[in-house]
Amino acid sequence: MNWGIRVVIILALFLAGMTYMVALAMRQTNETIDADYYSKELKYQKVIDGKKQLAALAQPVMISDSAGGVWVRLPEIAVQHLDSGHIEFLRLSSSKADRRIPMAIAGKSVYSLPLASFVKGWYRVRIEWISKGVDYYHEQNFQIR
Q: Model pTM?
């Protein structure tokens, strides 16, 4: 076999491999966590400020799953005079399992969410709230078992 035929065989294998990769890439779905990520990116300074405010507090945000529920414990001092807020559980593999829970204006620091309303797996938990005009923000990955 001469070198010309070898070059043609190598090019044919390369083209077949590239065609397979393009077909595979076209079948992939690429979900982003947020549909309106661009507008949220522009408001990211508010998130940075919220993280700084939360870091200055003595108590951390704690999330756990036990006793048939998911427990979210917020620093009491940061929710005493709650203006508004919400807790988001974003399912990384499917946006259909996302949950958004509004926070009670009464200044409740512990939230108990029924475990049955969640699909088991990994979530990105985002908590945003405003208390006395001060923004707070917390984000972490959390696994529900």
A: 0.70
Neighbours of 48 (CB within 10 A): 11
* Cα–Cα dist 26/84, whole Å: 42
- Burial profile 33-46: b = 16 or more Cβ within 10 angstroms, e = fewer: eeeeeeeeeeeeee
pLDDT one-digit tens code per residue, 43-95? 788 888 899 999 998 889 999 988 788 999 999 888 888 888 999 999 888 88
List, in order, residues 6 or more apart from 5 with CB less than 8 Å away.
none
For residue 121 the two structure tokens come to 């797996």
Q: What order of strands is seen across the sheet that includes strand 62-66?
A: 62-66, 69-73, 110-114
| Backbone dihedral angles phi then psi of residue 138, each to the nearest 5 degrees | -140, 140
Q: What six digits make up the tokens of 42?
A: 């522009």
Q: Which residues pair with 134 in a beta bridge?
A: 131
